[in-house]
């Protein structure tokens, strides 16, 4: 049976931890932890969840998440097939919220890094030339030890801090209201939806997973995810449709049904509401950009 990549704790005698991840798929568990995390995808694609934000990810995706910000890089379903030959590859750095005994947050010399790390409480997506330079630096850091490795990490953080090539991911109003004990419950909901989003899903089915009534589950999910369950499900379906629209061999009707919509009119309506254009307009724009 395939095993996903699992997160390791930072050893007590280390100021940070860097790992190279190679596995059939990334960690399937929706989770959060007390460390900062810088993660770059070198190989693999799927759907990324950061706080209350969802988007596709592929090779080159780089995100810095602050402490206790829920996240998940969930590979596409094809990665989980028994006969799949697909692989994932990434590099992750963990460093604690009391990094360098809080010196980073207290000394003038680190003010730009401190400001950037505060912003990472909503997640930062690093793009462009900065992304490419830091990816190379992370590869180099894998081979470094001692003081040299710490200097390299600080240089990476300073490069992000001085760059204008990053975007904040989660909404300004987002706050993590989850308790540690709720990780498994929400993880099961995410896993269920990612397996079944292209089918008809009754609210009772998802509520039963959490051992809640339908009304209690609706209140619970909205209070934690800052959106209704139906909006969450619709976003996943639209995100999948966007991927399929990049394949010119599939017609719009096929994509509609394969994404979990049961009428073309509803698909077009929801797609326009979330993306700001029709599926056909989205496809034409994607094709002309390549």
Q: Separation of termini? A: 38 Å
Query: What number is the mean pLDDT?
Result: 89
CATH superfamily of the largest domain: Regulatory protein AraC
Largest sheet: 6 strands, antiparallel
Ranges with pLDDT <50 over ≥5 residues? Answer: none
Count up the domains: 2
Principal-axes geometry comes out as: globular
The first-level CATH class name of the largest domain: Mainly Beta
Strand order of the largest sheet: 1-7-2-5-8-9
The fold-level CATH name of the largest domain is Jelly Rolls
Helix share bin: 40-55%
What Rg do the Cα atoms give?
20 Å
CATH architecture of the largest domain: Sandwich
Blueprint (SSEs and pairs):
Layout (H helix, E strand, L loop, with lengths): L16 E7 L12 E8 L2 E5 L2 E5 L4 E4 L5 E5 L12 E8 L7 H4 L4 H9 L4 E3 L1 H14 L4 H17 L3 E3 L14 H14 L6 H7 L4 H12 L3 H17 L6 H7 L5 H12 L3 H10 L2
Helix pairs in contact: 2-4, 3-4, 6-7
Protein name: Transcriptional regulator, AraC family
InterPro entries: Cupin_2 (IPR013096), Homeodomain-like_sf (IPR009057), HTH_AraC (IPR018060), HTH_AraC-typ_CS (IPR018062), RmlC-like_jellyroll (IPR014710), RmlC_Cupin_sf (IPR011051)
Keywords: DNA-binding, Transcription, Transcription regulation
Keywords:
290 residues; alpha+beta; Jelly Rolls; Arc Repressor Mutant, subunit A; three-stranded antiparallel sheet; 11 helices; 9 strands; Transcriptional regulator, AraC family; DNA-binding transcription factor activity; transcription regulation; HTH_AraC; RmlC-like_jellyroll
Structural description of this entry:
The chain is α+β, with helices and mostly antiparallel strands and 290 residues long. It contains eleven helices and nine strands. The protein has a six-stranded antiparallel sheet, covered by helices on one side. The protein has a three-stranded antiparallel sheet with strand order 4-3-6, covered by helices on one side. Strand 3 and strand 4 (53-57) form a beta hairpin. Helix 2 (111-119) crosses helix 4 (146-162) and helix 6 crosses helix 7. The mean pLDDT is 89. InterPro entries: Cupin_2, Homeodomain-like_sf, HTH_AraC, HTH_AraC-typ_CS, RmlC-like_jellyroll, RmlC_Cupin_sf. Residues 187-285 form the HTH araC/xylS-type domain. Pfam families: Cupin_2 (PF07883), HTH_18 (PF12833).
